[in-house]
Amino acid sequence: MSNPHIIGWGHTPFGKLDALDAEQLFRDAALQAIASAGLEPSDIDGVFVGHFNGGFLRQDFSGSLAALAIPELRHTPSVRLENACATGSAAIWGALDALGSGRLKRVLVVGFEKMNTLPNAQIGEVLLRCSYVKEEGDTPGGFAGVFGQIAAGYFERFGDQSDALAAIAAKNHANGVHNPYAHMRRDLGFEFCRHPSDKNPFVAGPLKRSDCSLVSDGAAALVLSLAPVAGAQVPAVRWRSRAQVNEFLPLSRRDPTRFEGAALAWSRGLADAKATLDDLQFVETHDCFTIAELLEYEAMGLAPHGQGARVILDGVTRKDGRLPVNPSGGLKSRGHPIGATGVSQHVMAAMQLSGTAGDMQVPNARRGAVFNMGGAAVANYLSVLEAVG
After folding, report:
1. pLDDT tens-place string over residues 305-317
2. Could you say which of 51, 286, 336, 346 is catalytic?
3. Three-state DSSP class for 181?
4. Can you give the pLDDT at residue 202?
């Protein structure tokens, strides 16, 4: 069976988009993706929607919004998937499985979220439901508090990592300046990210505001097929491998300073791709918090457990480093509209591999990877993607 392809993509700006409802966000991303594939809505025979919601919108049953956004999809099968912060990748996996079965030939994947509908305290409560509520549901600071505890445990075990976390934040914000879709296109610099201040206070444990991804609205979309199509407006990108690995939800059942499920996803995905990290030109990874990116360095094999700091401090993951990580700015700068994130990461990777990433472009990018996770590395998704031709 041939490997599936990304043949089109679309992306809205991320940010506080009060003037746009869910249908408009869906429409804007989806129509871009369909047009870039050189297709019409009538050419799509299945729609997979990634939408976390969790109470951000009164409207649920969001797979049905496809036809309201694009009336030509009225009778096209559509389904909504949810898997915490990996909701977008769950929708992609559903679409890929449908393609692989032979049931569908050209599918649309749309991930979207409207998060700025609630006060900040309620947003935190909604996101905290992605933890094990029986044990972690009252964590002060919401999901930032969960990762603040992870960071505190890592600091206690391996020493103060504040320089490394600030360097990760500064790197991703510097990269995000060049991303036209990013929520925050501002180079904050290392010093601002390193030192607490009125504008950058501590939020949870050793994590400051600059260590936390943004609460964003937005949408991203992909068109997938088993083969490139004639008339596409963008070069196709192909999956070389994909892996999904789950992990215990409660942090009490595992070592919170080690993302073992993520490490297994990386090892399986690279083995299936018959590749190593040296074969990749970039990675888009899930930096919901800077401590997450640091632990993901270790999970992907850039450093042993407890030594992830050296990866960023040695410049390995800078845009001009040996393996650029988050050349798009990552969640830290681009934003993190929950249902859209996994799809957005794949759009960013497709832009790199098709040579259409503009000022974000990594030179000679022929192969890259996307890592998206739900919860604290509970649902772990890895894609290894490559340019075609």
Report:
1. 999 999 999 999 9
2. 336
3. coil
4. 98
CB 382 within 8 A of CB 370: yes
Give the torsion sign (CA, 204, 210, 213, 219).
positive
5, 11, 85, 178: the active-site residue? 85
Does this model's pTM top 0.85? My answer is yes
- Three-state DSSP string of 62-97: HHHHHHHHCHHHCCCCEEEECECECHHHHHHHHHHH
What is the Cα–Cα distance from 337 to 310, expressed in whole angstroms? Answer: 30
Q: Is 195 a catalytic residue?
A: no
229 three-class SS: coil
Q: Which residues, in sequence order, are bridge partners of residue 384?
A: 241, 369
Give the pLDDT means over successive 10-residue stretches in the chain (389 positions): 90 98 98 98 98 96 98 98 98 98 97 96 94 96 96 98 98 98 98 98 98 98 97 97 98 98 98 98 98 98 98 98 98 98 99 98 98 98 96
Gap between the Cα atoms of 210 and 213, Å rounded: 8
Please say if 336 is a catalytic residue: yes
